[in-house]
Amino acid sequence: MEKILSELKPKESGKVKKIYGEGMLHKRLLDMGIIKGAKIEVIKVAPLGDPIDIKVKGYHLSLRKEEAAQISIEVN
Amino acid sequence: MRNRKFTIALAGNPNSGKSTIFNNLTGAHQHVGNYPGVTVEKKEGKASFQDYEINVVDLPGTYSLSAYSEDEVVARDFIINEKPDVIVDIVDSSNLERNLYLATQLMELEIPLVLAMNMNDMAEKKGQDVDYTKLFDLLGVAIVSTVGNKNIGTKELLETIIKVYEEKIKTKVVHIGYGPEIREEMDKLEQIVKKDKELVDQYPWRWLIVKMLENDSSVLDIVGKSSIAQEAIAQNENGRRHLQMHFGDIPETIIADRRYGFISGACTEALKPSIEQRHDLSDKIDKVILNRILGIPIFALVMYAIFKVTFIFSEPMVGWFEKFFEGLSGIATTYIPEGLFQSFVVDGLIGGVGGVLGFFPLVLFMFFAIAFFEDTGYMARAAFVMDKLMSKFGLHGKSFLPMMISTNGCAVPGIMATRTLESKKDRLITMMVTPFMICGAKLPIFALFIGAFFPTKYGANIMFSMYVLSVIIAFGSAWALKKLVFKGETAYFVMELPPYRIPTIKGLLLKMWERGWMYIRKAGTIVILISIIIWAGFTFPQYSPKEENVSEEEIAAVQLEQSYAGRFGHFVEPVVKPIGLDWRSGIAFMAGIAAKEVVVSTFGTIYSLGEVDPEETDSLRESMQKDPSWDPLKALAFLMFSLIYLPCFVAMAVFYRESGSQLKWTLFLIFWTTVMAWLASFAVYQGGRILGFGV
N or C: which end of chain B has fewer CB within 10 A? Predict the structure, then answer.
């Protein structure tokens, strides 16, 4: 099932299907290892509800829901 | 015996333990400068090993070598332009894949490369076992295993660096399998680019064409200035369009994809599979630290602890420093004959510099505490916890660190630290509000006034509320800027949460000293100079009474009033009168624009010149307490103004440069801070009087 990363709840995981948008943010996400097919697990949400903490390539990355909305995930 | 010199550059991801390796390699032989033209700090050091003297340059920590952040551009330009003899890439072994991504880009620069597989012990704990011979075969670069915080592998690393340097071991050109489609476009570009001999002599051609396909703005600039510009740019645009059609995605994506693919391949082969621990210690700690309910209270607690601990521990030492300078004044008074020169040494030099250095222990303790939370990994969590709130005010979770460095530290490195913010809007807003924090130079002002006019038991709490107030003012300003100036501009937040680590004492001390040194350097140069000018301003023109029976007290008072400084103070008095202050504060504020420390030393000069009995070397705090023209409300109004008004001259100069040398932002900053400072002090003083405080 395809979902947007920002809609995933903690402990849900899946594989990156597509990254939308262009430019700086897109490039930064790629550099950080968010590439097509990369496994992503949502670990937790910050106390104030944003940003989120995800695990990708074995490390923790945090991004705002706004950025996570650019990433579509094939949920396991 | 030969003594050969060469240069190496340390590259690596943030949090890869790069600075620890740097410290291990260079010991205490370090020196912090700037890269030409930009203000990114350039840390250099020397490593002497066998017969070699190795110049070690610590590049800024980066995840990639794209041209998106200032740090990356600096790291890249250094490698491309200065051509170090060897690059050492510090790799966090416990986070291998993402760390090797930078390595794949360094490999394309055709400079001998050594990989330092750092924190190998952590990786092993995680259940990871790397086959180095295999990884060497796959990547074609020399590999050394190190544990930076235990100083393991430093010797081997140096031996390998020398070996690679001596044998000129070219990084075996391992072609990253970009795939036939990209390969084809690369071939076409290669043929064009190689026509310009000069261009490919200066830059590695493979790197040029890959970066062109990645649409890298600065490489496109370089190529755009070459003789083959038109042809190359046209071909590149064609090629990019073609790739986009073929893959249904922009070429950057495909190239990043292939790099990670290459790494994945190498890792699968070289990593002996073992059980992956799903939740390591770091995850467990985060369960508490980032907990929905506990996260924010813990953040508040950490901040409070930093301040409380700093003040408690530094108090006796601040006392010793005060005593030391008092003693020094006493000695100078005894041995130097009375007169102008004695006054110059005692009041100008010792009084001025002592006022600043007296608070040095406090500044050092604070830097130590910040370094501790930075190196453990908590500061990234603080950014994570605070981002939602910060972004509401137009700031970024990471804006937190520049503000924190400025708090008790210095706005100069604080403003420089905004370079980690990638969007212009985030950077500018953070730079504008960073100077509102109570920096190490403002700290003596607060410590002096609170110590003099408020009971000791409330000291820490009043100080803490001043910090809270500075944060409120900074946030309020950020919010106003977001609404008024940067309407509709967006920015993003993508930040690593590094694993928690136990910092090394050496690393903490070096970091503390590095930032503390900046404070001292200011005291040693600008503050001495300004102290002398101010002393002269108070001393001249000299007043000699005509009548015989004038008391010394009266002479001192008249001298103060009719001196150049006194006249100037009277000139600005109408401005500070409504906020409860007199001409002396006017002088102090003006002097403080040169450097905030000078505010304290100006009072030092005022009160030591006004002293009647030279034997009675009161500390400044005591002298001010005895002065009937002060009361706690006036002290508060004074503090309010000091808190908000103009940043010091050095900070403004750095701000100007960092804001892209745009005068309008600097002028805006000056106007904004001055008006706000006056209004806030006015509200405090007049409001306080209406409520019946003060005299």
Answer: N
Q: What are phi and psi of B435, to 5 degrees?
A: -65, -10
Cβ-Cβ pairs closer than 8 A, A with B, add up to 126
Count of the separate structural domains present in chain A = 1
Tens digits of residue pLDDT in B153-202: 899 999 999 988 887 666 566 677 888 899 999 999 999 999 999 888 88
Residue B615 confidence (pLDDT) above 60:
no
Determine the distance in angstroms separating the CA of B70 from the nearest CA of chain A, rounded to an integer.
Answer: 13
Q: Where are the alpha helices (DSSP H) in B43-153?
A: 70-77, 96-107, 120-125, 132-139
* Helix-, strand-, coil-residue percentages of chain A, each rounded to 5: 20, 40, 35
Q: Average of pLDDT values for A52-74?
A: 93
At B69 the three-state DSSP class reads coil
Q: Which residue on chain B is closest to A36 by alpha carbon?
A: B257
Q: What is the pLDDT of residues B510-551, one digit of tens each?
A: 888 877 776 676 656 666 777 788 778 878 887 776 666 666
The domain B4-166 belongs to what CATH superfamily? Answer: P-loop containing nucleotide triphosphate hydrolases (3.40.50.300)
Q: Positive or negative, the Cα torsion across B155, B157, B158, B159? A: positive
Q: Residues of CATH 3.40.50.300 domain(s) within chain B?
A: 4-166
Location of each CATH 1.10.287.1770 domain in chain B: 180-272
Chain centre to alpha carbon of residue B598 = 22
Q: What is the CATH number of the domain that holds A22?
A: 2.30.30.90
Determine the Cα–Cα distance for residues A46 and B517; give it in Å rounded to an integer. 36
Q: Which chain A residue has its CA at the smallest distance from B282's CA?
A: A60
| B380-416 pLDDT per residue, tens | 899 899 899 988 898 988 888 788 778 877 787 778 7
Q: What angle do CA B637, B638, B641 make, to 5 degrees?
A: 85
Q: Does the pLDDT of residue B1 top 60, yes or no?
A: no
Q: In chain A, what residues touch B397 (CB-CB under 8 Å)? A: 51, 62
Q: Output the pTM of the full model.
A: 0.79
Helix (H, G, I), strand (E, B) or coil at B642: helix
Per residue in B200-229, pLDDT (tens digit) is: 888 888 889 999 999 988 899 999 998 898
Q: Match domain B180-272 to its CATH number in 3.30.200.20, 3.40.50.720, 1.10.3210.10, 1.10.287.1770.
A: 1.10.287.1770
Q: Which residues of A touch B97 (CB under 8 A)?
A: 33, 57-58
Give the residue numbers spanning the domain of A66: 2-75
DSSP secondary structure letter of residue B454: S
pLDDT at B74: 84
Residue B337, pLDDT score? 85
Residue in B256, B422, B493 nearest the CB of A30: B256
Q: Chain B contacts of A47, Cβ < 8 Å?
A: 290-293, 295-296, 385
Contact predicate B125/B35, CB 8 Å: no
Chain A CA closest to residue B500: A60
